[in-house]
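TL;DR need structure tokens for one chain.
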Amino acid sequence: LSDRGFTFEQRFGLASLPMCSPMSSSSSPKARKVVEAEARFARLKNQGALCCFVSVAALAVTIPYSTTKRQELGCDVLCLGFLTSLRSALSLVGAPLTGRVSDRSGRRVVLVVGSVATLCSALLTAYATSPRELWFAVAPSALLAHQYDALKAALADAARLVEDPAALAGSQGTLGMAAGLAFMCVGLGGLLTTTARVAAVAVVGFLANLGLSLTLPLEKQQQVVVPQRGETKKKRPRTTTGRTTERRGPS
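>> reply
TL;DR here they are.
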């Protein structure tokens, strides 16, 4: 028989394959969106973990220096106890405020503001000349530095578009692992013998964290509609076994 009038797929029996069927062309855009969402989620998870590691490591480097600084300024056990209590109280106030800002203005705003606040607290601690100034140095980071919660919320936003149900739990576990590894950098602060070196490393770390926060591939957030005062929900008729029951008048 002549091969004229037959396409390449018909000649070799490729027309029946799924890749050439009309059903696959209709489902390809959805599959492409899922693949793109998974790629963005993987990038957000990796870059978010790096952002968390850099932020915590830059703070951990300053811990040995901060302890020595408090001792030089005469901050005794009572002073340290009140400083810790003040940090906890301010964090209790700042956490819901930054959460509201994160839901309304975006996760990136909280990440950037938190990075700047942490840098300000580190600089105020480095240049403090009295225990009173240490109290002011606690306020910016305790009130505004909630990047870890903002990163978890950003991962939750991105996980909505991924079909893997375990993706969110795994990504948040990666964040916790990055934070735990970053605290091991406390010993690095002891190796940096001078204050200038500690300050330089901390500033570079905070600036790197700021740059990573500005380039995170964040997803759009779900809009939460809050009912205004005076609005009531529409009542639905009660149903039993899938059938609507209506009240009947007296027969």
